[in-house]
Write a structure and sequence with these properties.
mainly alpha, 206 residues
Length: 206
């Protein structure tokens, strides 16, 4: 029984030791959600003001890539465009991944911030210290509200950003396919004209 009692005491000490890291984590997460919310509204205003902003930037990158490949003279232009498309998609998805982290972590921190003070409150109740128990219960409910609020805000931001990104990805894929077809046809026409000129010059020399 003494060993079991020592183990329970050890677990109690370990659980209470996590209290301050959990509180600090919730505070930092709250600041992070405020920053994320500001970034979300900034992106919303940019998309409202420049609806085709992402597409125009991507088109300029494709044109730059076309120039770097000697106007399509280099083979495997489709591979370079596919790589550019994947890199752009990864950059768009980063904003959702950062918010998705808060969706998972915020409720967990809120739950930990609830259970730890409740254990202390029960200990205070056993000792008859009602003011200490009341203070710990207030802390427990407060951390729950903060954790759930951060999780809800992060979920709403992630939901809307995923909608934006899915629409952007569809448009990027369409623009990539259109750009590739137009430039392949142009390159084939140029190559065909060049071949015809060479053949004509050869016939004249003969």
């Amino acid at each position: 029984m003494e060993i079991l009692s020592n183990l329970e005491t050890l677990l109690y000490i370990l659980s209470t030791a996590f209290f301050y890291p959990v509180i600090i984590g919730l505070i930092l997460l709250t600041f992070w959600m405020v920053i994320s919310l500001g970034s979300f509204f900034r992106d919303y205003m940019d998309r409202k003001k420049y609806p085709a902003g992402v597409i125009n930037i991507y088109k300029s990158k494709m044109q730059q890539l076309m120039e770097e490949t000697n106007n399509g003279a280099v083979k495997n232009l489709d591979i370079f465009l596919e790589q550019l498309l994947q890199n752009t998609e990864q950059q768009l998805l980063k904003s959702v991944k950062r918010v998705s982290f808060a969706i998972r972590v915020a409720p967990s921190l809120g739950l930990m911030g609830t259970l730890i003070p409740m254990g202390v409150a029960l200990s205070s109740l056993a000792q008859g210290d009602m003011p200490a128990m009341a203070g710990n219960m207030v802390t427990a409910f407060t951390t729950t509200i903060v954790g759930l609020a951060c999780g809800v805000v992060a979920y709403l931001i992630s939901l809307i950003r995923e909608k934006w990104i899915n629409e952007d990805i569809r448009n990027l894929e369409y623009e990539t396919e259109l750009f590739l077809r137009e430039n392949v046809q142009l390159t084939n026409t140029i190559n065909a004209d060049a071949s015809a000129s060479i053949i004509q010059e050869t016939n004249l020399k003969v």
